[in-house]
Specification:
The complex is a heterotrimer of chains A (227), B (850) and C (267). By secondary structure, chain A is mostly helical. Helix content of chain A is 71%, strand content 3%. In chain B, the strands form 11 sheets. A 6-stranded mixed barrel of chain B has the order 24-30-25-27-26-31. The chains are: A mainly alpha (227), B alpha/beta (850), C alpha+beta (267).
Chain lengths: 227, 850, 267
């Protein structure tokens, strides 16, 4: 049974994500998951065992807040030290076009394992573009509503009240995205190689040519070399 | 009230408030300072539909629940009430039968009596005092006053009173008091409605009435109104003086006032008329001044025969001698005038009241001072001067639960004053003050036992709830230890002047704590021969040395149980209303003086024939005449007595017509006209402005009460510099000077800071907003406080001019959790002509933002 | 169900002596919270973690009634259908059988959801215990047959504790009397407000003159959150996880079947 595709260090590889991007990504992952599990102790009823892992409800609350601060710091870190990378990322999102729509239309079949033909994709495919919009938005909402709930005395009561369902909904949507993102970025046959892109920073050249043809051409291909 | 009725006490009691039809609360913030009155007034409202009127310079928490509120400028009560008297007389609203039968309205007044421009006949401007011999009745050949039952003779009291108050018309009164005319008329109409025979109105008053230079006459004004309306001596009527502390009634009964001995008998002076016992009893017994009796035996005979113009106080000698026996025991004998010469004689020219004491201290005339349960640095008038005066003492003993401001008057903190104040106060340091200060910690009321007498004269024994903390002791224990210690120091002396100390009886137990019941036994009275308590009451007291009684008005409080042990009536707790018509007498709960009479002057609760109730008022009758009753089984030949649910306040076996409704007065009646030297400034009240006033008196040209002693004429504040009327008051959350309550966190939480209340108009005038810090100044000091700018205070329109008021909370000092400046640094050293109670309630000040 | 008991507070009898406040502090052994006087006799803006009840002092003036000084006692209203109970994630709130809304401090984690859900903004956060506190209607006292401390202390008879239905009858009588005697707008508050409460008021004027919410309702926010998001929206997550699990399986099955490239079914 193949889980994550094995790392092939002996073939040609190209860099996909630099160190700053990877640190930011995994920092977010850890803090997000900590926030998620400690938060679920509150969101769900009857999960005392979940809280117990963190030392009870007070402990869970404490960990939640520490992780939240960590996440905020990660955000800051990523923006400050990887500013150009963020710009590139945003530029790519704005390239959403017909290829991405085509991708999204065939994606459900591909998801289940059927053979489909996929149009050439930029650095981030259609689905990844969607993730890039939804997840950070949700995270920002989580962070803002979180701080407002943490210091309710500083804000108007109406705003505080509004933040409770906002925090819940943002959590739900971002977690749905994270589930998909996590699965697709690791266990899903075909896209699993992207795990190494975020872990070690490189992906197989042939995989890049196949899955992100436009990106490969522009970055590493003849087009790029000719510039 | 004594000049009007014979006794200066709350005439009814707190539970009785439920029987009233209209309650006039004036000069009192009863809802805050006597909260329990609200419980019973609530009952009156619920059951009888009673109405509550509140007349006060400020709109307080009492005004908030009153049915009718009318403002009045502080110090103008006599004008307000004088107008009421005129209104009642002119509109025929007075209770005619009552006035004819029960008051001195019909008595004719001597021709020499006169009144002009605010002065009565006999005024000596140099002495600031009256020769009162013209303030007297016309007497017939039998020595009794002449009367006109038709009340039409121009020299009868009724007509003279009507004439006196004819100047107090509604418009003039409203010009003086600043009360809006429509509100004033509403008050008059509502309260005067209780003149109807089936209606009873009651007046509740407190310090707002008494703490003025005309305080006594303010109260006399209530007496006049209540006598006109026929409300005295009736359930739901009366004048309910709400005493300022829970046991001040007891304190004054036991003569914690300089001018009396227990039971409100004048104390002896160093004059010829008091040189020995016989002279003294002649001087203090009404009507006895010119008796030929040369010794006590002859006097006793005369008393037994009776003489006119005396009333029940003809028995004064019995009370005096019984007191002397109680105090000096076997050392008081017939031969030595019952040790009368042991009693200290006060200097007739000196005044020993609070203000006088502090003035003397200031002049370095006093060496030592005990301040027990009192805090003059916060509660005394002209507090800056009083604090400075304390520095002149050689020693001071302070006794309180906590170190209060007076105990710590010598500390650095005590001399802090607001920045930017205009009054120059010399800042002393502990180094500058030579007074040796001792502090004796006292325990709280729940940590000791004994009786307390509430405002309604109910003596209730209180049992201990907890042990005293640390080294604190009860006041009784402290005084006991001191007295025993002093006696020990003098026990071997051979000097005659030390005999009073050596020979004073002190038998309250030998243990660590004195036994309150032994004190009770002494002051309740006992027969000397067998030591049995006199449970029948003061009528059994004698002046031949066979009885002893420390406080004659308490006589009868002690009795014995079947087994012979003492049964102290103040301990009784039978929670049953013995009134057949539900009037709330509770005669077996505690013991009320005199002789457990719950409502005094209760003969007035029934019409003069003693049998017919006032029309429509049958369920408020307290006593009635039963011609078949036998009062004393030992004297079965005396048939006919007054019976009822309350103890009758008249001669028990005197039939209607002979029985006096106000037997403590020589006249035997209620008095509109306070004859002779009953009150220093006049037999009728007349409006005088407070010592410091923003306006001229519209009724006469006197600048102030003509009989008042002016201690510091140079401290008179002028309206040009001090344009606003200042007054002081309490709030429910704090108790008196706050020495107790400002040390309690929960109460400090409720009222943490000193504040003053001003109208929105005054706030605008001086640019003060709600919550700003302000400085209030008078010629005697400055204080800093938070301003409470409120809609509840409005400027008074006095004779067309706008007059503003600054209301200051006086309960703050520099100690405890809740601190602030004492408002009494602003009040003056001037007081009522009769009681010397300081004029805390009306003075002039200025206010500005700090 | 047991008969509901309630506290009736009659504004027309209250003299604002605040004995009730001190009795509450004493009974619950709460520390004093000393805040400076800023021009109103009530130094607290609202109840707080250590002050379960306050009396507010509100001045009004109008040409008809003149100056009115309205007193109002504020504390938990003990709603018949409390919002605090609904939003609490730890189910720390319960309703006693006679009507008190009681919060278990051992279950409370100080999240303050209840503070913001309450239409009267009553539950307050107490920092040093990191929990919420509020009036308990003296449940321990009442269960012993005593009255709540505030009702027990009230000298003026403004607070009465008893059966809710009886008190409502008394309140109706009282309002009728007040309306005929100078208070034409006297009204009962708490009979229907917020679905009915166990803290009833007889007011001498309309609720807004006492700074009471005129029509206290649960905010839309709260029911969207509690009634929709909480129970339903969360299912999206397990759906996403489930879909991923299905995808995991189907991909490998199809790949095996097609004997395809390990990289799955794509061109």
């Amino acid at each position: 049974m193949q889980w994550i595709p094995e790392y092939q260090g002996d073939v040609e590889r190209v860099e996909r994500f630099n160190a700053v991007a990877r640190i930011t990504h995994w920092g977010h992952t850890v803090t997000f998951l900590l926030c998620l599990f400690t938060g679920l102790a509150l969101f769900l009823g009857g999960v005392d065992w979940l809280a117990a892992i963190f030392g009870g409800y007070r402990g869970a609350g404490l960990v939640h807040r520490i992780a939240a601060v960590g996440m905020t710091l990660m955000l800051g870190f990523g923006v400050v030290f990887g500013f150009m990378g963020v710009i590139e990322w945003v530029k790519d999102i704005f390239r959403f076009g017909i290829n991405d729509i085509k991708f999204l239309m065939v994606f459900p079949f591909e998801f289940l394992g059927f053979k489909v033909k996929i149009a050439p994709q930029t650095r981030f495919n259609g689905g990844e573009k969607m993730n890039s919009v939804v997840t950070p938005t949700m995270v920002i909402l989580l962070v803002l509503s979180g701080y407002i709930m943490w210091f309710p005395a500083l804000f108007p009561a109406g705003l505080v009240r509004f933040c409770y369902p906002v925090h819940d909904l943002a959590m739900i949507f971002s977690t749905v995205m994270v589930c998909m993102h996590g699965y697709l970025g690791s266990f899903h046959l075909g896209s699993g190689e992207s795990f190494w892109g975020m872990w070690k920073g490189t992906v197989r050249t042939d995989w890049a040519k196949h899955h992100h043809a436009i990106w490969y051409e522009e970055t590493y291909g003849d087009k790029a070399k000719s510039e | 009230m004594s000049p009007a009725f014979g006794r200066g006490v709350m005439t009814n009691h707190v539970v009785d408030l439920k029987n009233t039809d209209v309650a006039l609360i004036m000069g009192s913030n009863a809802a805050e300072n006597h909260p329990i009155t609200m419980k019973w007034l609530g009952e009156a409202r619920r059951v009888r539909g009673a109405k509550i009127i509140h007349v006060d310079p400020r709109f307080t928490r009492t005004s908030a629940i009153a049915d009718l509120y009318a403002p009045l400028r502080s110090g103008t009560d006599i004008a307000f009430l004088g107008g009421m008297v005129k209104y009642i007389i002119e509109n025929n609203l007075y209770h005619k039968e009552y006035v004819s039968a029960y008051t001195n309205a019909s008595y004719l007044i001597a021709d020499g009596f006169d009144f002009k421009d605010g002065l009565f006949s006999g005024y000596d401007a140099a002495k600031r005092a009256y020769d009162t011999k013209t303030w007297d009745y016309q007497y017939g050949p039998d020595g009794l006053p002449l009367k006109d039952p038709t009340l039409s003779n121009p020299r009868c009291v009724f007509q003279l009173m009507a004439k006196h108050f004819s100047r107090y018309d509604v418009d003039t009164v409203c010009k003086i008091t600043g009360t809006p005319k429509n509100k004033y008329l509403e008050v008059l109409k509502l309260f005067a409605s209780t003149g109807a025979p089936n209606k009873c109105g009651t007046i509740l008053y407190a310090m707002g009435t008494t703490q003025h230079t005309v305080g006594s006459q303010n109260v006399k004004s209530y007496s006049n109104v209540q006598l006109l309306l026929g409300n005295m001596g009736r359930a739901g009527g009366g004048i309910n003086a709400l005493r300022g502390e829970n046991n001040v009634q007891g304190a004054t009964d036991m003569a914690l006032l300089f001018h009396i001995i227990p039971g409100y008998i004048d104390s002896p002076m160093n004059t010829g008329t008091n040189k020995d016992l016989i002279s003294f009893v002649k001087a203090v017994t009404p009507g006895a001044a010119n008796l030929p009796a040369a010794n006590m035996d002859e006097f006793r005979e005369a008393v037994t025969k009776g003489f006119p113009n005396s009333g029940f106080k003809i028995n004064t000698s019995k009370w005096v001698v019984s007191t002397l026996k109680a105090w000096y025991g076997n050392a008081a004998t017939k031969e030595n005038d019952f040790a009368y010469h042991y009693l200290p004689k006060r200097d007739s020219k000196k005044n020993y009241s609070h203000i006088a004491l502090f003035e003397a201290m200031y002049k370095k005339e006093i060496e030592g001072l005990f301040v027990m349960g009192t805090n003059p640095v916060v509660g005394g008038p002209n507090a800056n001067k009083e604090q400075a005066a304390l520095c002149n003492l050689k020693w001071m003993v302070s006794c309180d639960l906590w170190l209060n401001e007076t105990a710590d008057f010598w500390t650095y903190q005590a001399w802090e004053r607001p920045h930017g104040g205009t009054f120059h106060m010399e800042k002393k340091t502990p180094k500058d003050i030579q007074t040796e200060v001792f502090f004796l910690p006292a325990c709280a009321v729940y940590e000791k036992e004994g009786t307390a007498i509430n405002t309604g004269r109910w003596t209730q024994y209180r049992w201990k709830g907890a042990e005293p903390v640390g080294e604190s002791k009860s006041d009784l224990a402290i005084i006991d230890e001191m007295a025993k210690g002093i006696q020990k120091l003098y026990k071997d002396s051979t000097k005659p002047q030390d005999d009073p100390i050596k020979n004073m009886t002190w038998g309250y137990g030998e243990g660590h704590e004195p036994e309150p019941i032994k004190v009770g036994y002494e002051y309740s009275g006992y027969t000397v021969a067998d030591g049995k308590p006199i449970s029948a009451g003061f009528a059994s007291l004698k002046d031949d040395g066979s009885t002893a009684c420390g406080v004659w008005i308490y006589c009868g409080q002690m009795t014995t149980k079947a087994d012979g042990s003492l049964d102290y009536k103040p301990m009784w707790r039978i929670n049953k209303d013995n009134s057949k018509t539900g009037l709330g007498l509770y005669s077996k709960w505690g013991w009320a003086w005199p002789v457990n009479r719950r409502i005094v002057y209760n003969h007035c609760s029934i019409s003069p024939d003693g049998v017919t109730p006032w029309p429509g008022d049958a369920d408020r009758v307290l006593i009635h005449w039963d011609p078949t009753a036998i009062a004393d089984p030992k004297k079965p030949e005396v048939v006919g007595a007054w019976v009822g649910d309350d103890v009758c306040d008249t001669q028990k076996t005197s039939p209607p017509g002979k029985a006096n409704p106000f037997l403590m007065r020589p006249e035997g009646t209620g008095c509109f006209f306070a004859a002779k030297n009953s009150l220093k400034e006049g037999p009728f009240p007349e409006h005088y402005e407070p010592w410091e006033s923003p306006v001229k008196n519209l009724l006469n040209s006197q600048p102030v009460n003509p009989a008042v002693k002016i201690w510091e004429p140079d401290k008179l504040g002028k309206v040009e510099q001090y344009p606003f009327v200042g007054t002081t008051y309490r709030v429910v959350e704090h108790w008196q000077t706050g020495a107790l309550t400002r040390n309690l966190p929960w109460l400090a939480e409720l009222m943490p800071n000193m504040f003053v209340e001003i109208s929105e108009e005054l706030g605008k005038l001086r640019g003060i907003e709600n919550g700003d810090n302000v400085i209030v100044s008078t010629t005697r000091g400055d204080i800093e406080a938070v301003a409470c700018v409120t809609k509840r205070i409005k400027p008074y329109i006095v004779d067309g001019k706008e007059v503003h008021m600054v209301g200051a909370l006086w309960q703050y000092g520099f100690k405890g959790y809740a601190t602030g400046d004492p408002a009494n640094r602003l009040t003056p050293h001037v007081g009522d002509a009769n009681t010397m109670i300081p004029e805390y309630k009306a003075w002039l000040c200025d206010i500005r933002r700090a | 169900m047991a008969r509901l008991m309630a506290n009736l507070y009659d504004v027309s009898k209250c003299t604002a002596c605040r004995g009730c406040l001190v009795a509450c502090k004493d009974s619950n052994q709460l520390p004093a919270v000393i805040e400076p006087f800023k021009g109103n006799y009530c130094t607290h803006e609202d109840t707080n973690g250590n002050t379960f009840t306050i009396i507010k002092f509100i001045e009004h003036e109008d040409p008809v009634d003149g100056v009115r000084w309205n007193f109002i006692k504020r504390q938990c209203m003990h709603c018949l259908d409390p919002e605090c109970m609904k939003v609490c994630p730890k189910k720390a709130y319960t309703k006693s059988e006679w009507g008190a809304t009681v919060q278990d401090p051992n279950k409370c984690i100080g999240c303050q959801y209840c503070s913001y859900a309450c239409p009267f903004e009553i539950p307050k956060y107490r920092k040093h215990t990191d929990t919420i506190t509020k009036c308990t209607l003296c449940i321990e006292r009442v269960n012993e047959g005593l009255k709540p401390a505030c009702a027990r202390t009230c000298v003026a008879g403004a607070l009465t504790f008893g059966y809710r239905d009886e008190l409502l009858e008394q309140a109706e009588e009282r309002v009728k009397f007040l309306r005929a005697n100078g208070f034409p707008r006297a009204t009962i508050y708490g009979k229907l407000e917020a679905g009915g409460t166990n803290m009833l008021y007889v007011l001498t004027d309309t609720p807004d003159k006492f700074d009471l919410p005129v029509d206290p309702k649960v905010s839309a926010n709260t029911w969207v959150w509690q009634d929709w998001v909480q129970p339903y929206a969360g299912w999206l997550i397990p759906i996403a996880l489930g879909a991923s699990a299905i995808s995991f399986v189907t991909n490998r099955v199809l790949a095996n079947k097609n004997k395809d490239h390990a990289e799955g079914g794509h061109e």
